[in-house]
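hey
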């Protein structure tokens, strides 16, 4: 059987059976995915596992495309600007999910605002007050009856524990992970080619600030689902596995537009499967502007590849939307590249929004193809 170099639509398939979701991976597809550096196995329910290959002496762009398991869910009974009220059989302990640098988020799981997520600022026994920023829950269309799930955010210690790493020959001794470094990209970014805003190294069994490697452990540092991290691996080749909830509804990414120049948005959709440009939802949600031609560009997708060893992932393509299709810079503008991957095995992308007359936050709504 011919081995595939990338996942194709005919590889992973999904079926719904009495409310339980099964991801079926043919053995050939699993082998092909593993050799390319990513593997997903999903059992019953919505619990997922995604495995990524971290090349030796190299940097990789890794996104946390699964959420941590929900700790609570309830339906809304009343909506205010930044507050959701619920009717429940038992009350919550006040502020049990608030504080700790935004350690929990409320995710809207149905209705017009499906996919939006907000940090929980405070809460009473039956109401949540959320960090909604420039948005209002009312104007977003949150209504009584909408489902809300409460998820803890990832931390360094929960997203990247020693047991999440394996070598090609088996488990890794935590003492041998000292060559791992994580870099958080600046979010929101202020320009193109964003730099790291914070860095950590694994040392003496814990994550510590790279600027203070002998200082206290920073395992409780909060990470956001969907943010890209740069992982520098000075060890032998490692496999990194993440476990969590697979998103079973549309999800939302907020993109920034600036006045003083283009900006790279370093967040991605919560979808553990490969996503093509055509299936991304960028155009359908009006989050991505069409370009006049290859020279007069509005927005771009900047795609990185990290399948080869090296100090940094390589930019392999720039895409624009023009004339009703996805075009690849350097190729004839009549060719459509909508089937190219936005994200997938060894593939990552930033959305580079062009400047405009006034700063703006736009909503990128993505509905995973397994839900359609």
């Amino acid at each position: 059987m011919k081995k595939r170099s990338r996942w194709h639509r005919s590889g992973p398939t999904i079926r719904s059976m009495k409310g339980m979701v099964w991801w079926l991976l043919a053995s050939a597809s699993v082998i092909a995915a593993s050799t390319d550096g990513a593997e997903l196995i999903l059992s019953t329910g919505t619990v997922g596992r995604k495995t990524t290959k971290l090349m030796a002496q190299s940097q990789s762009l890794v996104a946390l495309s699964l959420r941590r398991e929900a700790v609570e869910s309830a339906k809304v009974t009343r909506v205010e600007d930044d507050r959701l009220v619920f009717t429940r059989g038992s009350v919550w302990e006040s502020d049990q999910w608030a504080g700790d640098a935004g350690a929990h988020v409320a995710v809207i799981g149905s209705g017009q605002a499906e996919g939006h997520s907000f940090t929980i600022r405070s809460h009473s026994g039956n109401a949540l007050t959320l960090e909604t920023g420039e948005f209002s829950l009312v104007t977003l269309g949150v209504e009584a009856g909408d489902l809300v799930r409460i998820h803890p955010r990832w931390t360094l210690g929960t997203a990247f524990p020693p047991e999440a790493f394996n070598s090609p020959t088996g488990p890794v001794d935590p003492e041998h992970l000292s060559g791992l470094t994580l870099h958080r990209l600046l979010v929101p970014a202020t320009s193109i080619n964003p730099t790291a805003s914070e860095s950590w190294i694994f040392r003496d069994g814990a994550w510590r600030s790279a600027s203070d490697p002998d200082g206290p452990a920073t395992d409780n540092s909060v990470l956001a689902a969907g943010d890209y991290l740069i992982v520098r691996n000075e060890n032998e080749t490692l496999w990194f596995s993440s476990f969590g909830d697979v998103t079973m509804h549309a999800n939302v990414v907020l993109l920034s537009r600036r006045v003083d120049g283009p900006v790279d948005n370093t967040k991605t959709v919560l979808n553990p499967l490969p996503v093509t440009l055509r299936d991304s939802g960028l155009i359908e949600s009006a989050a991505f502007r069409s370009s006049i031609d290859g020279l007069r560009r509005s927005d771009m997708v900047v795609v990185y590849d990290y399948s080869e060893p090296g100090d940094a992932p390589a930019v392999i393509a720039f895409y624009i939307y023009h004339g009703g299709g996805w075009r690849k810079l350097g190729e004839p503008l009549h060719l459509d590249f909508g089937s190219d991957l936005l994200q997938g095995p060894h593939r990552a992308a930033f959305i580079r929004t062009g400047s405009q007359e006034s700063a703006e936050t736009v909503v990128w709504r993505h509905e995973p193809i397994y839900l359609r």
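The CA atoms of residues 70 and 151 lie 4 Å apart. The chain has a mean pLDDT of 83.
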